[in-house]
Write a structure and sequence with these properties.
By secondary structure, this protein is an alpha/beta fold. The protein has a domain of 256 residues: Type I PLP-dependent aspartate aminotransferase-like (Major domain) (Aspartate Aminotransferase, domain 2, 3-Layer(aba) Sandwich). The chain has a seven-stranded mixed beta sheet, sandwiched between helices. A three-stranded antiparallel beta sheet has the order 10-12-11, covered by helices on one side. A two-stranded antiparallel sheet has the order 8-9. Helix 4 packs parallel to helix 11, helix 5 packs parallel to helix 6 and helix 11 packs across helix 14. The relative contact order is 0.13. The protein binds pyridoxal-5'-phosphate (PLP). The site of pyridoxal-5'-phosphate has 13 residues, from helix 5.
């Protein structure tokens, strides 16, 4: 037990030579011990029981802790540095929200427990729903979708069912801007619609003339993010929603990035009928790496009965579950990722109304400040005042010095900053998209801008080759194509891969 560290001394950040947990295994070592049996020993006779022991790694507790701590320290994290990944809203997640989600009564309550015994949990969802519909300007919400993409699919299935029930089956087209997040066209297609792309004008906004030409009696709806993926507010948003409503279509708001508008304006007032919000982005749950999220869908009153069920309703003697009458069905087991919803409510309560009213304003202020300092080094893609994020381009530097957006991203990583989002939105060549969020100090923003200046100067000079960065990280430039084409899920096969370009 607790047999000290592994004899080999390992560098804190080794290259890919870091041993796997299986390689650290030493027969007989244990990290835990079961308590003495306090029940009689019983033979289990079941043909499914295996004859030989599984090949599990055998390590001491210290080895185990060291191994995973080393791996964790090789990763970049919001808690380690500035993470300006545009469109992903990597803000600081207060520990307090996590501590609430870890409370036994929340973490261990079973979702099958009857409503009368879990009034507190129902209250969490009900209260959060009230806040969310106030923030978005909608009337009812479901917390089932576990992510933004799933919220989109939910919203589109609601549009589909609504149109079907109203005998408008000719409406087969969903209009999506060419700047949209990739999940938008994917969700529309998955829901059985045809995707029609509307172009972006020179200023980075929906091309209204193009939209007018595309809209007809087959238009089922439009999906839009506002501020859009260029970080710009669609000035003609009311006209846009009127164009769609005039032909009997519905308007869907991709509210994954609600950050810019919280406390400032509401999709419901802009004419949207359905909104999904990414609680994990805007309302601070640790995300990225595929962890649990929450993409609640809020709708205007006329769509309530299409929501996935059950939803929470208030009755005379307390809160209860209710399954809407024309529900599209379930999008997730039980009530979605309850603990993510809980964290969002805690975050909202931490900020209070006063704080929430400032959230959007500060997110925009930070982005505008950062864009003003960064644009002295890298030009903006659009010369419009940005909202919560902004897009720059190094296409000129690519021509003059062969500098690619990915080179800048890799160099930033090496200097302690996470890369901004690169090559997105797709319509901007060599794009770098920055989103500082409201949780960064002005000093951090200045640091990033200064570092970018140093990097661009270095890359423009002759003494550094573009492929040199990153120089100090455990992994250099992995070939991103091979893992995408040859999925390897077995650690033993990993070394067979040619992993550097
Ligand atoms: C992040 C994002 C999504 C997808 O959200 P997930 O929770 O990752 O599924 C959709 N649209 C926009 C604009 C986003 O930024």
């Amino acid at each position: 037990m607790f047999s000290g560290g592994n004899a080999k001394s390992l560098p804190l950040v080794g290259g890919l030579s870091e041993p796997t947990i299986n390689q650290l295994s030493n027969p007989g070592r244990r990290a835990s011990r079961f308590p003495k049996l306090d029940v009689p020993v019983t033979e289990i006779n079941n043909p499914a029981i295996r004859n030989d022991k599984p090949l599990l790694p055998e390590v001491s507790e210290h080895d185990l802790v060291m191994h995973y701590s080393r791996l964790a320290h090789r990763n970049f994290a919001v808690d380690l540095g500035f993470y300006p990944l545009g469109s992903c809203t990597m803000k600081y997640n207060p520990r307090f929200a996590d501590s609430m989600a870890n409370l036994d009564t929340f973490a261990n309550s079973h979702p099958s427990t009857p409503a009368e015994f879990t009034q507190g949990n129902l209250e969490i969802l009900f209260e959060l729903e009230q806040y969310l519909i106030e923030i978005t300007g909608m009337d009812f919400a479901t917390f089932q979708p576990p992510a933004g993409a799933s919220g989109e699919l939910t919203g589109l299935l609601i549009i589909k069912k609504y149109l079907e029930e109203n005998n408008k089956t000719n409406k087969t087209n969903i209009i999506v801007p060419d700047s949209a997040h990739g999940t938008n066209p994917a969700s529309a297609k998955m829901a059985g619609f045809e995707v029609v792309e509307v172009s972006t004008d020179d200023r980075g906004m929906v091309n209204i003339d193009d939209l007018k030409n595309l809209v007809d009696e087959n238009t089922a709806g439009l999906m839009l993010t506002n501020p859009n993926t260029g970080g710009l507010f669609e000035e003609h948003i009311s006209e846009i929603s009127n164009i769609i409503h005039d032909v009997g279509g519905l308007v869907y708001y991709d509210g994954a990035n609600l950050n810019a508008i919280v406390g400032v304006c509401r999709p419901g007032d802009m004419g949207f009928d359905i909104v999904h919000s990414n609680l994990h982005k805007t309302f601070a749950t640790p995300h990225g790496g595929g962890g649990p999220g929450s993409g609640p869908v809020a709708v205007k009153g006329f769509l309530k009965e299409y929501l996935p069920g059950p939803i929470v309703i208030k009755e005379e003697n307390g809160l209860n579950w209710y399954t809407p009458t024309s529900s599209i069905g379930r999008m997730h087991g039980y009530h979605g990722n309850f603990l993510v919803a809980l964290r969002a409510l805690v975050y909202m309560k931490l900020l209070g109304k006063e704080g929430l009213d400032k959230l959007g304003a500060f997110a925009v202020l930070n982005a505008r400040y950062l864009s003003s300092v960064v644009s002295k080094v890298i030009p903006l893609a659009y010369n419009e005042p940005c909202m919560h994020e902004f897009v720059t381009t190094v296409k000129h530097l690519k021509k003059s010095h062969k500098i690619k957006a990915s080179d800048v991203g890799k160099a930033l990583l090496d200097k302690g900053f996470h890369s901004p989002t690169i090559y997105f939105p797709l319509i901007v060549e060599e794009a770098l998209m920055f989103e500082p969020t409201e949780t960064q100090s002005v000093d951090t923003l200045d640091d990033l801008a200064e570092t970018l200046k140093v990097i661009i100067n270095e890359l423009q000079g002759d003494d550094i080759s573009l492929e040199e960065y990153p120089k100090n990280l455990p992994v250099g430039r992995p070939n991103e194509l091979i893992p995408a084409k040859h999925l390897t899920v077995n650690w033993g096969d990993f070394e067979l891969l040619e992993i550097t370009e």
